[in-house]
Amino acid sequence: MRILFSGILSLLVYFSFAQDDDIPDYRSKKDNFSKMMEKDVRADLAQFTFAGISESLEKHKLEQIPATEIQNDEIIFSNDTLTVKITTGGFDATKHKVTWFDDKYAVKLDNHAFWGTENKVPKTTITSVTAIMGLDTIAVPATAFADLYEPKLYFNDTKGSSKSYCNVYVSPDHRKLYIYMLNGEGTGRYEVTWVIQNKHYLRRVVDWGF
Q1: Are strands 105-109 and 124-133 parallel, antiparallel or unpaired?
Q2: CB within 10 Å: which end of the chain, N or C, has fewer?
Q3: Would you state the pLDDT for residue 21?
Q4: How far apart are CA 191 and CA 74, in angstroms?
């Protein structure tokens, strides 16, 4: 009887994992670090992203902008010449179309792949990413974060202090600004960097599966 029970349990575990492996993944890799053609941006991102760590042998210094304000739904980075603000909000699933696989795995939102959860409907969303450089305000377009969910603005360390995985960097030539976040949970965990060059939004870089 014990042998029979062990055999049944093994089969259940096998089919459970097999079913999970069959969940379709529609997330595009076109924004991956490995697909980048801009050599200067790629070299900068290799200094702080997980995806670029294998190319970070040649170190060069990026200026890091400090986080000056951290709240539940907002984080601000600033110095004398620059301010970057990221804001977040709740996700109302009733206002969106959810595509399900096997009636229990969320695989698309509004007919698009999304990042941030282990095939669950997300609870939080990014609402804005804005940089103020001198007299110029540069807003990252909504299309560059509309499919990115479960933002993590901060966490509390063992001493109860607020820390953040979010960072803002300036390139050595001061022409490029990098806004970085590490978000999501479990297999939905991902990193995103929005690149602003010459005070204009250039592109995003998204990677996952570290």
Answers
A1: unpaired
A2: N
A3: 61
A4: 18
Task: Count how many Cα atoms sit within 13 Å of the Cα of residue 35 in the half-sphere of its side chain.
Answer: 10
Q: Enumerate residue ranges in the chain where pLDDT < 70.
A: 1-21, 58
Compute the distance between CA of residue 95 and CA of residue 4 in angstroms, rounded to an integer. 48
- Measured CA to CA in angstroms, residue 83 lies from 17, 51, 100 at distances of 46, 26, 40
User: Domain extents for the chain?
Assistant: 29-208
Residues in the chain: 210
The count of C-alpha atoms lying within 13 angstroms of the C-alpha of 26, restricted to the half-sphere facing its C-beta, is 15
- Rounded to whole angstroms, the Cα distance separating 163 from 203 reads 27
State the Cα–Cα distance between residues 104 and 206, nearest whole angstrom. 26
Give me the sign of the Cα torsion angle 90, 95, 101, 104.
positive
pLDDT at 193 (0 to 100): 98
- Residue 149 has, within 13 A of its CA and on its CB side, a CA count of 25
Q: How confident is the model at residue 192, as a pLDDT?
A: 98
Q: Please state, in angstroms and rounded to a whole number, the distance separating the CA atoms of residues 23 and 3.
A: 31
Q: Could you tell me the pTM of the whole model?
A: 0.88
Beta-bridge partners for 75: 70, 86
Query: d(Cα 140, Cα 86) in Å, to the nearest integer?
Result: 10
Answer left, alpha or beta for residue 26, where phi above 0 means left and psi between -120 and 50 means alpha: alpha
CA distance readout (Å), 14 to 3, 105, 178, 186:
16, 18, 43, 20
d(C-alpha 200, C-alpha 184), whole Å: 27
Tokens standing for residue 190? 């991902």
In three-state secondary structure terms, 81 is coil
